[in-house]
Design goal:
Elements: H1 7-13, H2 59-81, H3 87-115, H4 123-128
């Protein structure tokens, strides 16, 4: 089971990378008015999520990697499921899956990016650093 203290927990639950308690995003990935909008601070430990101006521009690299992984998965699944795979059917399948999963890939790229730079702190560590009131 994936428990608190792992980066995967923070990514899959979209929680604060430091305390794994507060939400990282304003809303759900598929709610277009708040899609990908990162909260200013964690509601639990007051960690500021934007380390510096333009910090999340680096998440474009993660988004690219997720897109490549999606393409490889679509190709593999297409060859496993279908008898005949044409370039046109492959491209249409990929485009449909990319359009459907875009909001999720966009939010995942941001949470993965920030988890590369922030480390989980246990409650004792947070209290000692005066982050939790």
């Amino acid at each position: 089971m994936i428990g608190k203290g792992t980066k995967l927990y923070s990514v899959l639950r979209m929680k604060c990378p430091k305390c794994h308690e507060g939400d990282f995003f304003e809303g759900h990935p598929y709610k277009f008015s708040t899609m990908g909008k990162v909260k200013e601070k964690c509601s639990h430990c007051n960690t500021k999520f934007e380390i510096e101006t333009g910090f999340y521009q680096g998440s474009y690299y993660v988004s690219y990697a997720l897109g490549v992984a999606l393409f490889i998965a679509v190709v593999a699944i297409s060859f496993l499921i279908r008898d005949e795979v044409t370039p046109t059917s492959l491209m249409l399948t990929f485009l449909v899956s990319l359009i459907g999963l875009f909001p999720l890939l966009y939010t995942l790229s941001k949470i993965i990016w920030v988890n590369a730079f922030m480390k989980f702190k246990h409650k004792k560590e947070l209290k000692n650093s005066n982050l939790v009131e």
